[in-house]
Structure formats: C-alpha cells, structure tokens
C-alpha cells in the first residue's frame, strides 16, 4: 500500500508533540533537554531562554540539530509557529521524535521564568516590521493628501501586504528585514 504525500504530511503533523513551559523548566534545571531556538539571530540576541542553541528557521538544516539519545530535543520560537515548521522539516528528514514549546518564548516569559536579555541587540523583527510598514503608510497618506492622490497607492499596497501576511502567516517584509546586516550580527 502506498501513501500519498498529503497522508504523509498528516502523519508528520500527528507526531508533533508539545511541551509546556513548566515541564521544560524542570528538564532544563536537570540539564536533561536539548533546547533549540529557531528564531532569527537578532531575536535570539535580544532575548533567549538560557541554555538554548540557535538554529534559525530561515536556514534550518536538520543535519545540524544537536541530538543526544538520552535527551529529548525541544524547539522553540516566539509563539510556537516557526518551531512547528522546523519540526516538520525534521520529520521530513527522518527524525522520529521532536517536541516544541507550547506558546514559545511568550509563554515562557508569561510564566515568569528567566531569560537572557541583551539591550544592545536590535529590537524585535515584529517591531521593525511595524515601524517600516507604519512609516510607509504615513508617508503614502501625507504625500497623497498634499502632493498627488497617486501616492495613496503606496498606503494601499502596504495595507494589502499586511493583510496577505496575516492570512498566509508569512511576512515578506519580515523576511527581508531579517536579512539586513544589523539583524545578522552576533551580540555578546
């Protein structure tokens, strides 16, 4: 019996397990987990869970993930979306067991658990996207009001892009900003 690609994808999604922040904290305290951060370098540089290893989703290679047979591997990102995507890449590469942190770093912080914070690192990608998109809408609106109505197309284009990002859960502006030099530096 052969399985279709859709059925294989469904099977991989069914295998993805989540771990709550309290269980992860206990495992970290016992040094009994491989914790992998799949956010981008600037996000990791700004704030991370102590003891995690950075492997950004943008250039995620399953062969580079540090697996130890005696420790579970747990992926995390800001909310849990990118870590689920990274887990699917691991399943596609033949990995049988991997977990991701339910709610991501946001849930970890809300639970009051410690993070390593570097205030010299760039602001988060989400804030960078908000600043750039908001600036483009403001500029388009002002130029549309005082110079030419054609500049309103700029505001409309940015609005359509944000709507597309929300519907598809992909943000082209965020991916572009993640590749900027200030977001690629390693901060200590």
From TrEMBL:
Record field: transmembrane? 129-151, 157-178
According to the entry, every stretch annotated as the Rhodanese domain falls at 29-117
Q: Which Gene3D superfamilies match?
A: 6.10.140.1340, Rhodanese-like domain
Among InterPro entries, the record links this protein to:
GlpE_sulfurtransferase, Rhodanese-like_dom, Rhodanese-like_dom_sf, YgaP-like_TM
Which UniProt keywords are given for this protein, alphabetically ordered? Membrane, Transmembrane, Transmembrane helix
SUPFAM superfamilies, alphabetized = Rhodanese/Cell cycle control phosphatase (SSF52821)
Read off the PANTHER family from this record.
FAD-DEPENDENT OXIDOREDUCTASE, PYRIDINE NUCLEOTIDE-DISULPHIDE OXIDOREDUCTASE
**How is this protein named in the record?**
Rhodanese domain-containing protein
Native species: Chroogloeocystis siderophila 5.2 s.c.1
